[in-house]
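Lecture notes, structural biology module. Today: joint structure prediction for complexes of two components.
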Amino acid sequence: MANAQAISKGTKNEKGSNGGVLKIAQQAQNLSVLLFLVLLYVVVGILNPNYISGDNLANIIVETAILAVVAYGMTFAIAMGVFDLSVGSIQALCASVVATMLMTHGIITSIGIALVVGFLIGIVNGVLISKLRVPAFVATLGTMSVVRGAALLYTDGVSILIKNQSFGAFNTRSILGIPLPIMIAVVILIVLWAIFKHTPFGRHIAAVGGNPNAAVAAGLNVDRITIIVFGIVGLTAAFSGVMLSSQLMNVTGSMGMGLEMNAIAAVVLGGTSMQGGRGSLVGTLVGAFLLSSISTALDILNIPSFFQYLATGLLLIGALSLDSARRQLIKSLLRRSART
Amino acid sequence: MQSGDAPLLEAVGITKEFPGVRALKGVDIAIQPGQVHGLVGENGAGKSTLIKIFSGLYQQTSGELKIDGKPVKFRNPLDSQKSGISVISQEFQLVPQLSIVENIFLGREPRGKIGQIDWATARKRAAAILERLGMSVSVNQAVELLSIADQQLIEIGKALAENARLIIMDEPTASLNMAEADRLMKIVKELRNDGRSILYVSHRLHEIFHLTDCITVFRDGRRVAVKPTSELTEEELVTLMIGRKLETPSDTDSLNQHNNDSAPIFEVKNLSVPRYVHNVSFNVRSGEIVGIAGLIGSGRRELTRALYGLETISSGEIIINGKAEKINNPTQALQAKLYMLTEDRKEEGIIPHFNVSENIALSSQPKNVKDKFLINQDHEDTMYKNMKNFFNIRCFGPTQGIVTLSGGNQQKVLLGRALAADCQVLLLNEPTRGVDIGAKMEIYKAIRELASTGVAVVVSSSEAQEIVQLVDRCIVLNAGNLVTEISKKDLNEDNIVAASLRRAKTEAIVNG
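The predicted structure, tokenised, for the full assembly:
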């Protein structure tokens, strides 16, 4: 009896330490992102004090919010083990829709229509992937091109100026002293977090991402989950399109190119594994903040925009190799625990 | 022995050890030129390991291989092929998109003057091979368009193109229908008449008796017998395979009444799955545990998967509580109150990064509208506590990661998931695979308790012992047919194994 207790105690400690190491690995990545942020602000702030001026910080915040909203949707997709390449095109089309609608309709109606358009495109993605069994990569690559074409056709290749000034106030207004874009980013974060953590649907997303075969065998309606997740991605991309158009007040069909890359990078930098099964929406917000801070820093230091592609790509690769290093660690720990 | 009549391939004292397991314990086998040599044994007797050593995939721990009396070492499959050995395994090594001729000569394409592939010669030789195999298709046909049986012949064609002297066939008729199997056996005989040797591995004893000159029997990694086929009877062979004398199975009274005469809540009528299951009917009463026995490839796996909507059913009915149910996917099965745990706990069971409680709750159905949209934490906690007590799950708490649990405890969590799914019919596949003996007994107890709550339980298992210990009665499948039903009083390992090896009555009639 005493022996058995000792054994169970031993295993408990062992398991405890495994969990500990994993947590430390996760914390190390979070910490390295934060450290990088602090370093960035100190160094760029010294090189050019304008970087930490109120105006510029407000700018970074707006950019962060716009990227974060679409990256939240991407977090759902990646937690489910897939990703969506069409977000940039959806953003452009929905921005164009809202800009033209504003000429004839009110703000609420215009935004509503743009959101419906984005949601429906997402549903189409979901149906292609679940019902027609097109791999997500190929399906969204296709809609990326189709929707981009639609956006360019819709705008006739010219830029649309938004004249409704109260629509532009979106980004400058504050509620309770908090800038509206931050408000939006945080509210959407809370809503999606609640869905992810506290609804069966959110739980099922993680189950599909963690072990798709087991999810099917457990009787989950994987098709429906897939369709709704892509609908949500479309919706968030549309929302970011609305926010972007209110920031620029000038919309073209070619905006939002390469957004998929930034969105995926924000998610991965935020600590969400490309392997699926997990998702950290707060991490995604931090990832989006990091990317926006870097791009603004490069702007303010007059570094050509080509380098932004370089920086984002390198960050993504770096974050991904951290991610797989962490997975290797987990694997080796599992093997060890299986043997004991 | 003179070198003139040395065996084509001889293995002497072959031992193969894996970490913790000795799969082969010093086996000998000698295959003469122009001989069809049968290799039989129960699952796990070591047949596959020996084949992998012959094909160069594994290297023996000790012992010697000889070709024509000369010692050889197979470091890889290429060494084995160069010695004239060709293995036709159950998984074909064909490239589906390529044509027949491309597959037959893959890696050995005849070359022209400047190193280009000489397609004219290749096609001519491939056509000759096809003719020899009695196939009348174009050599340019893509392999994926061929039937399984024809694809297998292409594998044999590859062996012929290599000019293999020894062809090893591992369960070659497992996925063939009777006519196809007959054609294959005819070809095997022709190959022998050409002077080639064949090592024929099969569970189907009538094929072994029909084809082979000599039979080697493996049991638990040892060779227990080698005899000319003419000196053996089917009963003797089965006795050698299972290591005990067989009690004569009583055919007549095996389909008798269960003591409990309540109406069945789960009925399967004339169910067929293309290729794998033919017209199988059985039923299960509330609280009853019914076993499905059968060797690997008997259609056991496909039967349960089809019932759960994971395989396509070509005909038949599934009736639950008197209502015919349409089950095309597991979601529909769950709605019909039928649930299944697959045999692959890791690939199709646990969600690895979920904790114990989340894994239990995965298939649970919402009790009311609110639960549909919001996770009911109290309900989950209650479920966790109930399942932990019911199945005696050993874990530190609801939030412990499932992957840190032992295999047996993971299985108990999955049983908890099944119970939480609130099903009336539960299908279990290999419920104790990879579980140690102590946990096995606990799982049997848990399954019995689960049944005692009124659930109709079906247990599909390749272990005869497990069926005997667990079930109230069992059906036995062979080549997709239900061969017999064994009632509780006749339920013993010998009867199960004997029935598993016996061919279906219908098949016997057709084959005459």
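Point to remember: The longest strand of chain B covers residues 21-31.
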